[in-house]
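Appendix B. Raw example, untouched.
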Amino acid sequence: ILGAQSPRALLFEVVLVRRQLHVVSRRVRGSSRAVKKFIDDRDIASGLTAYLQDIIEHLDEVSDDCERLGGKCMALCEAYDRAVDKERDRRNRVNTGQVKKREERRKAQADLQDRILLLLVVVTTIFVPAQFLTGVFGMNFKHEDGMSAQPELVTPNGYYSFFWTPVLCYFALCLVIAACVYMCLRRRQDKEDFYVDGGAAGGDSPARESSSNGQIELVDFLESGESKIGFIIEAPKYRDHRQGRATNA
């Protein structure tokens, strides 16, 4: 029967039992006080004192049992609350892990799309001039006499001189620019890694060393030049005093 019930239904039953035990404990304490009054009355308790004393002892045992069982019911309620909290924390951790995985998957997909778009943009940018030359030399305009309107097409070796030579030079220039950009980015990354590794290892970077040296020089100047600073502060007063004397004279 207990296995077929849900944990919340069992918790409700435990709470109900605890309330009933509390009611029983109150009734037992009232009965114990009534029996003690009977014992105090000599007319009623004559010959029944031992019997009434046994009744009081049994009522005390019942009261103690009610308190003990009530404590167990309270412990069961607290254990249920802890179990619910643990289950909620576990679900929250699972949900948080799933959310993080979805975010990481979405971020990885976005990064992949960005790299693909960057690659497409770079390839398109590189081949746009070649496509332009292809479109220009692919136009079939002719004069009235049937000759081509583009003299480059009828020039000897014009195909290599006017098309492939500019295209190859452009590709070579693109390679040189790409190599320069890669070297600059690589050098900047190496500098950043150097500063990060130096800070993580506890070393002083050049900027930090220059800052500390500047602070030390400032402190030395202030410590050694107190008299100079005092002279600079007192100099206007001295000049004002001399000017006052000259005016009075």
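End of appendix B.
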